[in-house]
Amino acid sequence: MRGMGNMQGMMKKMQKMQKEMMEAQEALNEKQFEGAAGGGMVKVSVTGQREVVDVVLNEAVVDPEDIEMLQDLIIIATNEALKKVEDETASTMGKFTQGMNLPF
């Protein structure tokens, strides 16, 4: 019966880790991440849930003759913001999954 105490202790540790993981994920979800392109002429903000919440365009970058450039800058800024979310998620959540080889 001695093994039951170890199992209960392990379960408590797992529950604590699960709670900490949920809190860390909630904190990430509430953060905003910004990506920029064209020297800051285009800025895109996304949440940790990967939702675009803001796009800011400098008037100088809006050229009706070159819509493709503006589209490219928006894509670049959005991808940069999403990359920041991915990096911070991996850094924050990775400490919980080290050595477990689990996706998050």
TrEMBL record:
Q: Entry's Pfam families?
A: YbaB_DNA_bd (PF02575)
What are the Low complexity biased-composition ranges? Answer: 1-12
Region described as Disordered: 1-26
Q: Report the GO molecular function annotations.
A: DNA binding
Q: Name one GO cellular component term.
A: bacterial nucleoid
Entry keywords, A to Z? Cytoplasm, DNA-binding
Compartmental location: Cytoplasm, Nucleoid
Question: Where are its TM segments located?
Answer: none
Subunit note: Homodimer.
Q: What does this protein do?
A: Binds to DNA and alters its conformation. May be involved in regulation of gene expression, nucleoid organization and DNA protection.
Q: Spell out the NCBIfam families in the cross-references.
A: DNA_YbaB_EbfC
Q: What is the designated name of this protein?
A: Nucleoid-associated protein K8V30_05970
The protein's organism comes out as Metalysinibacillus jejuensis
